Amino acid sequence: MSTWLVTGGAGYIGAHIVRAFLAQGLDVVVVDDLSSGHESFVPAGVPFVRTSILDTAALTAVLREHAVAGVVHLAGFKYAGVSVRRPLHTYEQNVTGTASVLQAMADAGVSSLVFSSSAAVYGTPHTDLVTEATATAPESPYGESKLIGEWLLRDQARATAESDAPLRHTSLRYFNVVGSADESVVDTSPHNLFPLALESVAAGRTPTIFGDDYPTPDGTCVRDYVHVGDIALAHVAAAQALDAGRTLEPAYNLGSGDGVSVRQIMTAVAAVTGRDVEPTVAPRRPGDPARIVASGELATRDLGWKMRHDLVEMVASDWRARSAARAEQS
């Protein structure tokens, strides 16, 4: 049976991917430096190694010790806004870190890689629906670092094409990951909309909408919001496809095809929580596009991708996980 390494497997998304692997009966090992992850998110019985992906020797040792067949690479610095203030840190973690992962894989003879990329590689696309053919034009060091990561995979695959272990890979691009598929794992980001809105409601504060005068149906920004459980299943499907020797596209969008607005999210928060949620409207934030929504058709074709949760289910799953966490802390 194949064992897969999940870098960043103690994080919000990574921990869900680990659980999705286990649900398919696949063995997994986790590497995480816990800079933003939580060891408590790693399921009991799953081997966990606390180390940085910058430590190539340590990664190589993990790959060899656990006879790893493939890697799901999530570990990195993910905050686009903060990356503008900390570009060197962002590039070190996301570019140098990815190069370190690839070097460790080459040293250990591991040839399958699923890369957790980002729709930030597109920047502000001039199209209503983003596809994999949409031009990449990242607008932050974070988005740039993810695109460079994809280039590293491409170039390493070319370089190893005639070797005994040619790199086989794919990258998954997605926007806003929300919800919870396990009440013991919740998004603890200080920057994401769902945590900000739901924690505000739980504390009796008023959530904030930044701009309600966009050229959208209700005046607020429209984005892809995808349930974390669905994102996790796509990573497992990609890993299984590579394991089976299938050839995949270099990149797939995990998109909804239609998106939801910030106002719709606030309405769903009110419905789920039973609280009076009338958000404060603040001025637009610079650089926020009116609409960014991606097509997931290619991922549907090759990975069986689909949205299995609607907006209310996404909000409800997140609220349950947060309520459980609050109850445990009290």
UniProtKB/TrEMBL annotation:
<dbReference type="GO" id="GO:0033499">
    <property type="term" value="P:galactose catabolic process via UDP-galactose, Leloir pathway"/>
</dbReference>
<dbReference type="GO" id="GO:0003978">
    <property type="term" value="F:UDP-glucose 4-epimerase activity"/>
</dbReference>
<dbReference type="InterPro" id="IPR001509">
    <property type="entry name" value="Epimerase_deHydtase"/>
</dbReference>
<feature type="domain" description="NAD-dependent epimerase/dehydratase">
    <location>
        <begin position="4"/>
        <end position="255"/>
    </location>
</feature>
<dbReference type="InterPro" id="IPR005886">
    <property type="entry name" value="UDP_G4E"/>
</dbReference>
<keyword id="KW-0119">Carbohydrate metabolism</keyword>
<protein>
    <recommendedName>
        <fullName>UDP-glucose 4-epimerase</fullName>
        <ecNumber>5.1.3.2</ecNumber>
    </recommendedName>
</protein>
<comment type="similarity">
    <text>Belongs to the NAD(P)-dependent epimerase/dehydratase family.</text>
</comment>
<keyword id="KW-0520">NAD</keyword>
<comment type="pathway">
    <text>Carbohydrate metabolism; galactose metabolism.</text>
</comment>
<dbReference type="Pfam" id="PF01370">
    <property type="entry name" value="Epimerase"/>
</dbReference>
<keyword id="KW-0413">Isomerase</keyword>
<dbReference type="InterPro" id="IPR036291">
    <property type="entry name" value="NAD(P)-bd_dom_sf"/>
</dbReference>
